[in-house]
């Protein structure tokens, strides 16, 4: 294949591809795909060491073929890891230096592995040989997939250990722009698509670089060449011109940017001249070549300041405590082979303990805004310089600008962006699965007055979170909002029937299940009912002690048949492995909440099921969600085996009797106790007969206790009986002589395939109903016309 120097006459244009495109093995090395349709060929060069490279790049040969100018009129620019392999010896030398920058790693290279293998062969069995061969293949694939993303070697090692063999699409697109181009990133991708590492890896990379540079500075050694990939010489001419064009376009865009007046209600923060500094470094194509001496352009504070003062280099803001802890753990795993300390600062836990952790000067701080602000207000030393933070991540950003977080976030951001600290060029990351979701319905959102477009929503969001400059916006979300591997269904029922259907589902489809409710009262009642029904539910809501919240999450995670009843505090971000089902006991008020709640299942390309229990009160929200998710039809009905429903109903109704009886009694008792205590504290005398709830005399109370005990005993008997009625009889089709009986409860029934197999039947039925309705309407219309005609006569 010959090398061609081209001079572009038009702009490189992005070629759109679906986010799941990269899951296709043939295209997994692809990061971006651009085409150039008008160009002039400057020169043709023969390849020097091309053969072996092409062989290595076999799986991307299809894409490369497209680059042959002889065959096609257009030219595609493919930023793939294979570029790295094409580059010259000089670059390899740079790379060696770079791995020095990032610390030595034990990740074996392909060749070292091969050597090891050949020396060991005599002592290995054939089976082991096969295993090694397999490992080597995945090792090769893994390296190819990640190396082009500029991942630090120690992180590569951790990724391999975690068996993260390919970057997810959001990672593949966000990481190079963040690391290579040092751009601010606004990332929107479906739930469970790996956004955490999308910002986590660049943050770790930045800190490693900072520490390395700092070390060199302290040692007085010269600043090394940066490890950034040098541009492929083949591309330089075209890229240079292309980029010049891009920059002028950007400037034009900037001038056009005119943010509307209504945004002025947000406190303006004073900003310095960072924006001007942003384009300091020279860009060649999409690769920035940064002047060695220009330390600050990398976003690092001045070395003088960094050696003495301690402050977090990265701040990651999360809306909930559980999420902050999870993200911290995720990053700890990714930074396992890096010398980086990561800490959490979250509410509900000992502030003193957190201060002790901060004394160790963690480089990364994962925090919820409330507790962080509390510590800043206390003028806690380590946080007094938080304004110098180099990497700022606002995860679940659309949630962070909603009521309840926005006020604290604004205070924090105002503090961080103080004018006097503008010497620092900060890199910001803004992520969420619903960042670009726009809809016409009323929103709880703080931006509710505006009729939003996707662009407008992003613009306002960026303004609110005070994002400077022009970030790289990567939006991989679909119009349908939810992830492809999610199966959705609904159960139409009355309010009273919700417990019945929920219990039915849990019996028939065991598996890790997360149930969402809209209020704490509802969670309390469900916990009581489901505990009596021996389904071992665990609650999770904001009013619980933090320790208990975390304990329940752990217990839920550990039990493959775990049942968690949660408020929306668990709706966002939580990455609990293998949640099979999400049930919306009450339909959420916003489409965003529906997407996030449902996103607790079907993560990382796994399948999952979301079922909404739609009662009369939920219909409005249900309709809104369907509309805002651009669904053309209703969700399918979840198939219910009507034959076993009566026994389920019997159990549930008895349980509710017990719950009501004991709850009412306990409630009255608690109120009395509270009143007596309060009166005592105030030295008040009161008339017990008039003011306290009547609990009855001691014999009545004993009677009540007995009644509840009796009900519980009755329930115990019911729970031991089979759910399939004994008197049951029915006609069953036999297939190849085998009698197919109804499913027994407890037998593992795959709820997802049930929905999927039932859907065509439902569609058929719906069509038949519609056809019948149409027929009837036509008949009615004809009779009406006839009658009218005869009347006239
Ligand atoms: N490259 C990868 N290969 C395989 N698994 C990955 C990869 N990156 C992340 N994961 C796993 O995918 C899961 C989801 O990742 P993550 O929690 O970052 O998703 P998310 O996009 O932030 O989801 P949400 O929007 O719900 O917060 C995690 O279990 C994570 O460990």
Automatic annotation (TrEMBL):
DEAD-box RNA helicase Q domain boundaries: 144-172
Signal peptide start and end residues: none
Ranges of Basic residues composition bias in the record: 86-98
Annotated function: RNA helicase.
Ranges of residues in domain Helicase ATP-binding: 176-453
Similarity remark: Belongs to the DEAD box helicase family.
Family annotation (CDD domains): DEADc_DDX24, SF2_C_DEAD
Bias (Acidic residues) ranges: 217-231, 241-280
Family matches, as Gene3D superfamilies: P-loop containing nucleotide triphosphate hydrolases
Protein name per UniProt: ATP-dependent RNA helicase
Keyword Iron: no
GO MF: ATP binding; hydrolase activity; RNA binding; RNA helicase activity
